[in-house]
């Protein structure tokens, strides 16, 4: 596995935050997450600005559109662009959603994969191919879902474990997604967490969500993280034997950097409780 000891608590890299970050990266923010689809191949001022950060601070790539479980052909051109982008910026970790989002064209939503043995084989083969192109193991994320995939004959934790073991990949654990799904589908999030292959965790997401008027809980990444989600993160750390890089997601309703940094600092506090976090004198490179 990559060296996780220098990557502890991080933040999604958003253009809205760049002016504040150019004034200084808070010490609690040990890395940034970036979507390669939004930056690979970009030139000019944007490329120069990104380089000014990747030269100083570690970055992680989290994909949005690979559609690992989708019916369409795997986008190998995107994978090659991502590979080259990661090499250019010295990025050593890539994760994607365990879902699908494209057929003949992109659907701009993350849809659940039918949880069957055939789907395990199909999805694992596509993950293995992605790993071959990228030249590294990747992490796959448990996704938030709003419909039960038809035809399933496996429970989701069982499906996730089967996929990561068959593909020999890592798990990208999203504790907010567990909480959201537990509310919408009526299961115990703590029992679900314990059934996941946490020993394969390479990366963690924590985020906020919203509750619609009809009670539907939506994974918006637009609110503060709530206490039950922090508790799931604490429980996940208790099952791990080392610091796993953990990113605060905030995609809209983005507050000042100082406010976001408070939540990143909470991640760092939980890591210190569980593992003893790296000191601020540790180098910032992966």
Describe this structure in words.
The chain has 286 residues and is an alpha/beta fold. The protein has a single domain, classed as TIM Barrel (Alpha-Beta Barrel), CATH 3.20.20.150. The protein is 40% helix and 17% strand. The protein contains ten helices and twelve strands. The protein has helices spanning 18-22, 36-39, 44-54, 76-89, 117-134, 156-167, 175-185, 189-195, 227-238, 257-275; strands at 9-12, 31-34, 59-62, 94-97, 100-102, 106-111, 139-141, 170-174, 201-207, 210-211, 217-218, 246-249. The protein has an eight-stranded parallel β-barrel with strand order 1-2-3-4-7-8-9-12. It has a two-stranded antiparallel sheet with strand order 5-6. α4 links the parallel β3 (59-62) and β4. α5 crosses α6 and α9 packs parallel to α10. It is globular. Residues 1-5 and 279-286 have low confidence and may be disordered.
Number of structurally distinct domains: 1
**Distance between the amino and carboxyl termini:** 12 Å
Oligomer: single chain
> Main sheet, how many strands, which sense, barrel?
8 strands, parallel, barrel
Query: Which radius of gyration do the C-alpha atoms yield?
Result: 18 Å
Based on secondary structure, the structural category is alpha/beta
CATH class term: Alpha Beta
Strand content: 15-25%
Q: Care to count the β-strands?
A: 12
Q: Work out the helix count.
A: 10
Mean pLDDT: 89
Q: Which strand order spans the largest sheet, edge to edge or round the barrel?
A: 1-2-3-4-7-8-9-12
User: What fraction, in percent, of the residue positions are helical?
Assistant: 25-40%
The SSE string, one letter per element, is: EHEHHEHEEEHEHEHHEEEHEH
């Amino acid at each position: 596995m990559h060296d996780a000891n220098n990557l502890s608590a991080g933040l999604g890299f958003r253009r809205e935050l760049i002016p504040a970050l150019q004034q200084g990266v808070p010490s609690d923010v040990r890395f940034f997450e970036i979507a390669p689809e939004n930056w690979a191949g970009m030139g000019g001022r944007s490329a120069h600005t990104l380089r000014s950060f990747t030269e100083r601070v570690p970055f992680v790539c989290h994909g949005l559109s690979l559609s690992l479980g989708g019916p369409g052909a795997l986008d190998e051109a995107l994978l090659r662009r991502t590979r080259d982008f990661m090499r250019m910026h010295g990025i050593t970790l890539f994760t994607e959603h365990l879902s699908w989002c494209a057929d003949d064209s992109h659907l701009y939503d993350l849809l659940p994969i039918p949880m069957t043995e055939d789907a395990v084989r199909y999805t694992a083969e596509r993950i293995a191919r992605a790993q071959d192109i990228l030249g590294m193991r990747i992490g796959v994320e448990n996704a938030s879902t709003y419909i039960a995939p038809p035809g399933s004959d496996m429970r989701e934790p069982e499906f996730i474990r089967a996929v990561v073991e068959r593909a020999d990949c890592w798990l990208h654990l999203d504790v907010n997604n567990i909480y959201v799904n537990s509310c919408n589908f009526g299961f115990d999030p703590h029992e679900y967490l314990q059934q996941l292959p946490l020993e394969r965790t390479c990366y963690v997401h924590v985020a906020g969500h919203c509750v619609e008027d009809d009670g539907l809980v939506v994974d918006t990444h637009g609110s503060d993280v709530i206490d039950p989600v922090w508790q799931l993160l604490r429980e996940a750390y208790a099952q791990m034997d080392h610091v796993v890089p953990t990113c605060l997601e905030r995609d809209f309703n983005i507050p000042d950097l100082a406010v976001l940094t408070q939540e990143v600092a909470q991640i760092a506090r939980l890591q210190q409780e569980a593992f003893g976090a790296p000191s601020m004198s540790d180098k910032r490179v992966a």
